[in-house]
C-alpha cells in the first residue's frame, strides 16, 4: 500500500514505484559501504561500473536482448535521439533518405529534425488528425531508404502500435519512450530502439538506446561526438560523464519490474488498467469521448474529452478540480490537444486506476 496520498497520472516525468523511492532515499547519503552518495560518485569508479553494468544486464534479461545488440545510456532525451538517429543512420545507404511514419506530435518532430540531414519520405497520406494509424496497405515504403522510423506510442495523442511494422528488410527504428518495457518486444526485429526513462523505467536524464552492432560506425562526419553511437558504445556509455544518478534509478526500477514478473506481467497489468478506463468511456453514451480508433488506443496514455466530442471545457475544469480534491494530479491533457489524459505507466497501480475509474463513474452520474 502506497504511503503517499497523491496519485500521479502525469505523462512524464511520471510516477515511480514507491519501493524504488524508499530504497533511493535509504541509499541517498551512503551507497552501500562507500560512504558517499551515487550523486557524488565518479563515473569511472568501480562502484559506478557495477551500477551501470547491473542496469544493462537487467535490461538485457528483461527484454531478451540478443548479443549482437549494444545498449547505451545517453543524455539529450528522446529529442536528442531525433537528431542522433539520422546523424548515425541516414548515411547507411548512398541516397541519404529515410522513411517516416508520422502518427502524432513526437514522430512529426522526429521527421522534421531528420530533414536537416537527408531526404525524408512520409510513407502514408498525411493525417488530418492524429487518431489512427494508416493501414499498412496504404504505405509506400522506399526500398532504398536507410531506415524506417516510427513512434510506438504517441504520448500526446494516445495512439499506440499493437503490431511491428514490416519493412521488407529495411532497418526499423522505433521511439518507445512512452511504452518501453510496458510489454514484451522482439528486439531482433529492430535496428534501433530508443526510450527516455522518465515514463516507464526511471527518472529524467537518461535515454536508453539499443542498437544492432552492424549499424555502428557509419555516422555522418558532422555528427557531434557525444551523439556518435560507435563512440558511446565502444566506451560503455562513458565517453563523457553520463547521467549517473538516473542510471542508478533505472537499475532500481528494472529490478522492481523483474521482481514483479517482468515485461509479460507489466503487459497484463497495463491491459487491465487501460481497459478499466476505456470501458467507462465506451459505456458512457458519449459523455466521455476518446477520439482514437479502437485498434490503436494506447494502454499508456488515455486521452478523453468530457460532455461532448470536442469537449465541454467548463465541465473538464470541474472534473480536474474534483480530481485534485481527491488527490489525483496531472490529468490535464497536453496543451496542444486539451481535454483529459490519464497516463497509466507501469508504476501506476490497479488501485490507483480504480480510484480514477470510481471518480469517473461518480462524475458521470452527477453530470450526465
Ligand atoms: N518521444 C516521445 C514518445 C515522448 O513522449 C517524448 C516526451 O514526452 C519525447 C520523445 C521527447 O523526450 P524528451 O523530452 O526527453 O526529449
TrEMBL record:
<keyword id="KW-0718">Serine biosynthesis</keyword>
<keyword id="KW-0808">Transferase</keyword>
<dbReference type="InterPro" id="IPR015422">
    <property type="entry name" value="PyrdxlP-dep_Trfase_small"/>
</dbReference>
<dbReference type="GO" id="GO:0005737">
    <property type="term" value="C:cytoplasm"/>
</dbReference>
<dbReference type="InterPro" id="IPR020578">
    <property type="entry name" value="Aminotrans_V_PyrdxlP_BS"/>
</dbReference>
<dbReference type="InterPro" id="IPR000192">
    <property type="entry name" value="Aminotrans_V_dom"/>
</dbReference>
<comment type="pathway">
    <text>Amino-acid biosynthesis; L-serine biosynthesis; L-serine from 3-phospho-D-glycerate: step 2/3.</text>
</comment>
<dbReference type="Pfam" id="PF00266">
    <property type="entry name" value="Aminotran_5"/>
</dbReference>
<dbReference type="InterPro" id="IPR022278">
    <property type="entry name" value="Pser_aminoTfrase"/>
</dbReference>
<dbReference type="GO" id="GO:0006564">
    <property type="term" value="P:L-serine biosynthetic process"/>
</dbReference>
<dbReference type="InterPro" id="IPR015424">
    <property type="entry name" value="PyrdxlP-dep_Trfase"/>
</dbReference>
<dbReference type="GO" id="GO:0030170">
    <property type="term" value="F:pyridoxal phosphate binding"/>
</dbReference>
<keyword id="KW-0032">Aminotransferase</keyword>
<protein>
    <recommendedName>
        <fullName>Phosphoserine aminotransferase</fullName>
        <ecNumber>2.6.1.52</ecNumber>
    </recommendedName>
</protein>
<dbReference type="GO" id="GO:0004648">
    <property type="term" value="F:O-phospho-L-serine:2-oxoglutarate aminotransferase activity"/>
</dbReference>
<comment type="similarity">
    <text>Belongs to the class-V pyridoxal-phosphate-dependent aminotransferase family. SerC subfamily.</text>
</comment>
<keyword id="KW-0663">Pyridoxal phosphate</keyword>
<keyword id="KW-0028">Amino-acid biosynthesis</keyword>
<dbReference type="InterPro" id="IPR015421">
    <property type="entry name" value="PyrdxlP-dep_Trfase_major"/>
</dbReference>
<feature type="domain" description="Aminotransferase class V">
    <location>
        <begin position="8"/>
        <end position="356"/>
    </location>
</feature>
Amino acid at each position: 500500500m502506497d504511503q503517499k496520498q497523491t496519485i500521479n497520472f502525469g505523462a512524464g516525468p511520471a510516477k515511480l514505484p514507491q519501493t524504488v523511492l524508499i530504497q533511493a532515499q535509504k541509499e541517498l547519503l551512503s551507497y552501500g559501504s562507500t560512504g558517499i552518495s551515487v550523486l557524488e560518485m565518479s563515473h569511472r569508479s568501480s562502484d559506478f561500473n557495477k551500477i551501470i553494468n547491473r542496469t544493462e544486464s537487467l535490461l538485457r534479461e528483461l527484454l531478451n536482448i540478443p548479443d549482437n545488440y549494444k545498449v547505451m545510456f545517453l543524455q539529450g532525451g528522446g529529442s536528442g535521439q531525433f537528431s542522433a538517429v539520422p546523424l548515425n543512420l541516414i548515411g547507411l545507404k548512398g541516397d541519404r533518405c529515410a522513411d517516416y511514419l508520422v502518427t502524432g506530435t513526437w514522430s512529426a518532430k522526429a521527421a522534421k529534425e531528420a530533414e536537416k540531414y537527408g531526404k525524408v519520405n512520409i510513407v502514408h497520406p498525411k493525417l488530418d488528425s492524429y487518431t489512427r494509424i494508416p493501414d499498412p496497405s496504404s504505405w509506400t515504403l522506399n526500398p532504398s531508404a536507410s531506415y524506417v522510423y516510427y513512434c510506438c506510442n504517441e504520448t500526446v495523442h494516445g495512439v499506440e502500435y499493437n503490431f511491428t511494422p514490416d519493412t521488407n528488410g529495411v532497418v526499423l527504428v522505433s521511439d518507445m519512450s512512452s511504452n518501453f518495457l510496458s510489454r514484451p518486444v522482439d528486439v531482433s526485429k529492430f535496428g534501433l530502439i530508443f526510450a527516455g526513462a522518465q515514463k516507464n523505467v526511471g527518472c529524467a536524464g537518461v535515454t536508453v538506446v539499443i542498437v544492432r552492432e552492424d549499424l555502428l560506425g557509419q555516422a555522418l562526419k558532422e555528427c557531434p561526438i557525444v551523439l556518435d553511437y560507435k563512440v558511446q558504445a565502444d566506451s560503455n556509455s562513458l565517453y563523457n560523464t553520463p547521467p549517473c544518478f538516473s542510471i542508478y534509478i533505472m537499475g532500481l526500477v528494472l529490478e522492481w519490474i523483474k521482481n514483479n514478473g517482468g515485461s509479460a506481467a507489466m503487459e497484463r497489468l497495463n491491459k487491465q488498467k487501460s481497459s478499466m478506463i476505456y470501458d467507462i468511456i465506451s459505456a458512457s453514451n458519449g459523455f466521455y469521448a476518446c477520439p482514437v480508433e479502437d485498434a490503436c488506443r494506447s494502454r499508456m496514455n488515455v486521452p478523453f474529452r468530457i460532455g461532448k466530442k470536442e469537449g465541454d471545457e467548463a465541465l473538464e475544469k470541474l472534473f480536474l478540480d474534483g480530481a485534485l480534491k481527491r488527490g489525483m494530479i496531472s490529468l490535464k491533457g497536453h496543451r496542444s490537444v486539451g481535454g483529459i489524459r490519464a497516463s497509466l505507466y507501469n508504476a501506476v497501480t490497479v488501485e490507483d486506476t480504480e480510484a480514477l475509474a470510481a471518480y469517473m463513474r461518480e462524475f458521470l452520474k452527477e453530470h450526465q
